Amino acid sequence: MRTSGEITRTPEDMQPGRRIRKAGVVAAVALLAAVAAVAAAPAAVAGGGQRGGHRGEVVSVVPVARHSRAEVARGLEKLGVGTGSLRYGVRAYRVTYRTVDPQGRPTTATGLLTLPAGGGRTLGLVSDSHGTMATRAYAPSVSEDARAQSYLFASAGHAVAAPDYLGLGQGPGRHPYMDTRSSVTASVDMLRAARSAAHRLGRTLDGNLYATGFSQGGQVAMALGRAVQEGDAPGFRLKALAPVAGPYDLEGTEVPALTDGRVNDTSGVLYISYFLTAQNRLHPIYKDPAEVFRAPYADRVEGLFDGLHEEEDISRQLAPTVRKLLTDDFYRKLTHPTGAFLQALRQGDHTCDWKPDVPVRLYAGDKDTDVPIGNARTCARTLARQGARVRVLDQGDVDHVGSYIAALPKIARWFGGEAA
User: Which segment of the chain is annotated as a signal peptide (predicted)?
Assistant: First the structure.
């Protein structure tokens, strides 16, 4: 469910139990840090006051980066990402827009809009959903480290909308981690904002939408595809779905894997503590953190997920294993969820329970110890029972990060070829 990290890390640093990845787009890598020609400038577009307005209304658009095709290629090559689909340089903008919070109240969110610096005036749109991040400053609209796939897809000729989600980037409040419903409303509203912002920047979106995402974002991409197909984003037509390593089966696969070794402890501690503290604001899982977390972690865990702490800092202040983090009673609930905990899991477990009218490709890796490949296989079976055209594309003996690096160029070619 996690993303990003540092381009200078060695393969050994990324082994299970050692990798604490800063969140961004290409898990465990910081793309283009060396070639960031950031063009920060006053807002290119501004509109609306602080209150009122409609969902998806653009508040502001700020240029944040520009790269030549050669710079994009060099950055991707350093990560081992194929560059055969690259055609143009790119221009990236932070878009602030109106949306709603989990309770349906008006709020704002931010996201990254990336456009090719060339090609035609009319563009298809890729929606790219990022993976788990605990630090708001690592979101795509803020951090250069979180923009790899946006640059890849834009250089191939698409507009790219990458929502930060609620409470990340420059949006207010805390991130409601793994609340699929609000991640989808923020993503749908980012589509609307991207259409308006692109128009004001001299480009037109043709309505064709290609949805992808990594890890947490894979789950969001599946749910977004459903929302678009059911008419929640008028003017957009879903063309293809290509999520990577998504936690589509929390109750049956992901959460039980926290106890049987399929998920490494470093990642497991971060995921379950983030999930419980965020979901407790939406579901009454506990009244006191001590009901779920052991001492001394119960006194500090909620404060660690304020959007300001880095993942390395969070992990240093929590237990080394899931077993040592949670109370005996709650640890047993990981394999037999009940009550509000079960409700929270099931609310996110229906992203594959529908029939897409478009082809679906689920990318995953055999050695993924963050989001085991069983998630993709369960999703595929569920989709197939609905009559969907779905394939699981096993990326081989690669881990969570490796599955994404392997899948990205394939998705870019697919979106630009037969899926177009």
Answer: 1-39
Burial environment of residue 6 by CB neighbours within 10 A (0 to 12, 13 to 18, 19 or more): middle
Residue 419: predicted pLDDT? 76
Bridge partners (DSSP) listed for residue 108: 98
Domains of the chain as residue ranges with CATH: 11-248+350-416 (3.40.50.1820), 250-347 (1.10.260.160)
Among candidate residues 319, 266, 22, 371, the one with its CA nearest the CA of residue 168: 22
pLDDT of residue 52: 57
71 three-class SS: helix
Q: What is the mean pLDDT of residues 103-125?
A: 97
Question: Please, what sign has the CA dihedral across residues 235, 241, 243, 247?
Answer: positive
d(Cα 119, Cα 217) in Å, to the nearest integer? 28
Rounded alpha-carbon distances, angstroms, from residue 263 to 1, 7, 260, 319 = 11, 24, 8, 15
Q: At what angle do helices 400-416 and 148-155 cross, to 10 degrees?
A: 20
For the chain, the residue count is 420
Longest dimension (CA), the chain: 60
What is the pLDDT, as a whole number, of residue 330? Answer: 97
pLDDT tens profile 169-198: 999 999 999 999 999 999 999 999 999 999
The angle formed by the CA atoms of residues 115, 111 and 33, to the nearest 5 degrees, is 70
> What tokens were used for 78?
């350093």
